């Protein structure tokens, strides 16, 4: 069992701790997020239940189970927390969510000293599909509100980008640009990663001459030139 993330409100561990005694140990299909506050866990759980079905398995995994940490789970959690030398905090609730077989976009970009051109082209392709799905999600009045490279994962199993961490998400009838603005910022990080590769940098510079802003149009032009 491994600690895979530590945020302001939660600890993420993999494989998951099941909610019931039967499913308690080593569930390799799920991740457990341990929450200090029950309210925060409940809020995130509510959001998962509201996520549009249309994008389930495409942009996120809607599956989520919530349970309060009873004394039974507590002793198990304490053991895990001790094993990983994390200061003891009282965790009240947990969420189990589907495990995304992959790494965050942040880790992926930092993995390469110089990204190979083929990998870069493929990443651009995944970013285009990801953008289309974000637009669809926003059209269904759902806004993630925290899209950045540490909350986006590359799922190697199904070869797609996935959203995680719905702690700040909102259902809103009012049209907002936040997710697309955040997407554009994230795209800049991807482009920066490509710049270290001379060949890719030449393509980037030539597209920049005709299109100064980095957004979906820039991405599509670059992709069509480079592929
Ligand atoms: N479904 C998942 N599958 C695989 N890894 C995950 C999954 N969810 C989270 N992780 C890993 O755990 C890390 C932390 O998770 P997440 O972003 O959901 O919470 P957080 O930012 O730590 O906490 P908070 O809820 O306080 O924002 C991620 O960056 C990722 O590495
Ligand atoms: Mg996060």
Brief digest:
With 227 residues, the chain is of the alpha+beta class.
Task: Please give the order of strands in the largest beta sheet.
Answer: 1-2-3-5-4
Any idea what the radius of gyration is?
Answer: 19 Å
**Topology order in helix (H) and strand (E) letters:** EEEHEHEEHHEEEEHHH
Share of residues in helices: 40-55%
The portion of residues forming beta strands comes to 15-25%
- Strand tally is 10
CATH homology superfamily of the largest domain: Transferase(Phosphotransferase) domain 1
Number of individual domains: 2
The CATH topology of the largest domain comes to Transferase(Phosphotransferase), domain 1
Report the bound ligands by name, code or SMILES. adenosine-5'-triphosphate, magnesium ion
CATH class of the largest domain: Mainly Alpha
Give me the secondary-structure category: alpha+beta
| CATH 2nd-level architecture of the largest domain | Orthogonal Bundle
First and last CA, distance: 40 Å
Mean pLDDT score: 91
Contiguous low-pLDDT stretches (5 residues minimum) are none
What gross morphology would you assign? globular
Sketch the major β-sheet: 5 strands, antiparallel
Total helical segments: 7
């Amino acid at each position: 069992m491994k600690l895979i993330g530590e945020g302001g409100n939660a600890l993420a561990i993999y494989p998951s701790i099941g909610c019931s005694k039967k499913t308690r140990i080593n569930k390799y299909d799920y991740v457990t997020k341990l929450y200090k506050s029950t309210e925060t866990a409940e809020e995130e759980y509510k959001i998962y239940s509201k996520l549009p079905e249309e994008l389930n398995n495409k942009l996120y995994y809607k599956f989520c189970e919530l349970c309060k940490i009873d004394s039974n789970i507590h002793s198990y959690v304490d053991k895990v927390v001790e094993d990983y030398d994390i200061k003891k905090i009282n965790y009240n609730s947990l969420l189990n969510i589907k495990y995304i077989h992959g790494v965050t976009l942040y880790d992926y970009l930092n993995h390469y000293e110089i990204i190979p051109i083929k990998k870069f082209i493929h990443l651009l392709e995944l970013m285009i599909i990801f953008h289309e799905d974000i637009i669809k999600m926003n059209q269904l009045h759902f806004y993630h509100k925290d899209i950045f490279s540490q909350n986006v994962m590359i799922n190697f199993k199904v070869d797609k980008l996935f959203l995680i961490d719905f702690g700040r998400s909102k259902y809103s009838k009012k049209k907002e640009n936040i997710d697309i603005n955040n997407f554009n910022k994230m795209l800049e990080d991807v482009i920066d990663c490509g710049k270290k590769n001379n060949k890719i940098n030449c393509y980037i510079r030539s597209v920049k001459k005709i299109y100064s802003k980095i957004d979906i149009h820039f991405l599509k032009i670059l992709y069509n030139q480079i592929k």
